[in-house]
Amino acid sequence: MVFIKQFLCEHCGQETFQQAMVHLTEGTSNQKICRDCFSKIMAKQLGVPFSPIQNNRITLSDFEGKGHTFEIASLLTPNGMALEATEWIDENGEKTVGYKESVLMPVGTAQEIIYEKLMAKLVRVLAEPSLSFNYGLPAFVYPGTVRGRVEYEESPHAEGPKVVIDGRTFTWDEFGKMMSSWEGWKFQLRMIDITEDE
Ligand SMILES: [Zn+2]
C-alpha cells in the first residue's frame, strides 16, 4: 500500500496530498506548494495565462467494466503544460494511488486538446490489462506487454520499490513471485516517463 500523507500548501494553505506537492527551490529557500500555486508562479515567469482545470473529476470503466475515478490536475512547467490524472483509492481510511497518467504538450496548447489526449490515453490504458488472475493469484498476461509504475516504498524493512500494475500496488517481493513463474525466459525492460506515449 502506498500511504499518502496530507500537507498544507506553504503558499495558499490548501490541503494537498504528498504526491501532489511540488518542491519549489528559489535561492536558499525550499517550499512545498500545491500544483495550482506552482503553475501560477510559472505563468508569471513565462508570461502566459494559466487557469486551473475546472472539470477535474471523471470515472472511466476498465477492461472488465469496473469504474475508476480520476482527479485531473493541471501543471504548467518550463517544458510545457501537463494534465495529470490520478486515481486515489480509499482503503480503510487511507489514500493510495492506483492508475496515474499524464500528458505534456507545448505551452499555449488549448487545455481541451490536452484533455482529449489524456482521456484517450486513460481509455487505452484501462482497456489493456497487464495481469490476469488464476485462483486469485496475479500473473503476467501472455502474449502481451506488462506495463507498470515504480513507486516509493516507505517500509524500511522492504527491499526494492513498490510496483503498481493495473492500478494495484505490489511489493518488490510480490513482483518477484510473478517473475519467478517465467524462469528461463528472457525479458525486455524499457523505462519511460509518465508523460510519454507507449
Ligand atoms: Zn497552493
From TrEMBL:
<dbReference type="InterPro" id="IPR056103">
    <property type="entry name" value="DUF7686"/>
</dbReference>
<dbReference type="Pfam" id="PF24828">
    <property type="entry name" value="DUF7713"/>
</dbReference>
<dbReference type="InterPro" id="IPR056102">
    <property type="entry name" value="DUF7685"/>
</dbReference>
<dbReference type="InterPro" id="IPR056130">
    <property type="entry name" value="DUF7713"/>
</dbReference>
<feature type="domain" description="DUF7686">
    <location>
        <begin position="54"/>
        <end position="126"/>
    </location>
</feature>
<feature type="domain" description="DUF7685">
    <location>
        <begin position="9"/>
        <end position="48"/>
    </location>
</feature>
<protein>
    <recommendedName>
        <fullName>DUF4428 domain-containing protein</fullName>
    </recommendedName>
</protein>
<feature type="domain" description="DUF7713">
    <location>
        <begin position="145"/>
        <end position="196"/>
    </location>
</feature>
<dbReference type="Pfam" id="PF24735">
    <property type="entry name" value="DUF7686"/>
</dbReference>
<dbReference type="Pfam" id="PF24734">
    <property type="entry name" value="DUF7685"/>
</dbReference>
